[in-house]
Amino acid sequence: METLDPDLLRTFLAFVDGGSLARAASAIGRSPSAVTAQMQRLEEIVGEPLLSPQGRGRSLTPAGEDLVGHARRILAVHTEAWLALKGARAGGRIAIGTTQDFADHGLPDLLRAFAGSHPRVRIELRVGRSLELGSALQAGQLDLAITMRHAASPDEAALITEPMLWLCSEKGLARRQEAVPLALLDPYCGFREAALNALDAAGRRYRIAAGSASLAGLRTAVNAGIALTPRTRRFVHSGIVEASPDLDLPPLPMADFAIRLGREAGRPARDLAELLCNGLALPS
Q: What is the pLDDT of residues 182-221, one digit of tens each?
């Protein structure tokens, strides 16, 4: 019996999470032709097609859908074993920076796993906005950072790609309005730019009904029904849901986040980066 190579499974999940072979190639740092070859090899091992043509792209076959859950579990066990073998000897300190999105959703469980397998490593956590965290990483104040990606950078260890969504209060807007009411972070913010560009391109009227320097302020405004906001599924909890299709809002682009390593990052930080690369993607 042939085994399921973890590298092939990582590439497969990069396609699942990114939605295309091109995005998968960018996320794992390989060429599109190499990704295609890996998918073909995985299909040979499984014995069934995993992807099928859909328009100009590809979609998962029923066998591909079945493999997603198995792939995530296999990689989770693989990572757990790898951490257990390497972590006990490691020591030192890691300074981590992250946006609030990941601090709320995804990162806590992974940090718990890392702390359990690396008991001698001290973790210092800083939550902030992407530009601030990027500057701190370049200044040597952080060993590792999770930031929104505005351009390619040589310090990237991996990419996480997620769809942007229009989000609102589960109770809906407090009142009907002709212009789309928006709750946005202060400039510069990639979500802000994406929302305004999408509305402008669609010819939709809008107004900025609430502004904030933090995601906590944004969440309050959205929960109050004052406005809609563009974020990813990580923001969907505590009374916030995806906006109804009845609002006829224009589609938003994908959001790219980068896991970045500082120039002086040591072995524990690189171990943590690898754990985050494998574990932060949202399940399909």
A: 999 988 899 999 999 999 999 999 999 999 988 889 999 9
- CB of 171 closer than 8 Å to CB of 261: no
Distance CA 126, CA 145 (A): 9
Q: What are the C-alpha distances in Å from 27 to residues 52, 93, 97, 186?
A: 21, 27, 20, 28
How far is Cα 160 from Cα 257, in angstroms, rounded to an integer?
A: 5
**Contact predicate 261/143, CB 8 Å:** yes
Helix (H), strand (E) at residue 51: strand 51-54
Contact 122, 91 (CB under 8 A): no
What is the C-alpha separation between 136 and 99, in angstroms, rounded?
A: 13
Adjacent-strand bridge partners of 97? 126, 145
Q: For 48, list phi and psi in degrees, rounded to 5.
A: -145, 155
Q: Which helix (H) or strand (E) holds 195?
A: helix 190-202
Alpha-carbon distance 41 to 38, whole Å? 5
Cβ neighbours for 223, distance < 8 A, ≥ 6 positions apart = 169, 238, 239, 240
Question: pLDDT, tens digit, for every residue of 129-151?
Answer: 998 999 999 999 999 999 998 88
Give the type of residue at 211. G
Tokens matching residue 53: 């043509």
Pairing relationship of beta strands 206-212 and 180-185 according to DSSP bridges: parallel
One-character DSSP codes across 15-33? HHHHSSHHHHHHHHT--HH
Query: Which among 252, 156, 254 has a CA at the least distance from the CA of 145?
Result: 156
The one-letter amino acid code at 244 reads: S
CA 118/CA 272 separation, integer angstroms: 10
Is the whole model's pTM more than 0.85, yes or no? no
Torsion of CA 35, 36, 37, 41, to 10 degrees: 100
**3 state SS of 273:** helix
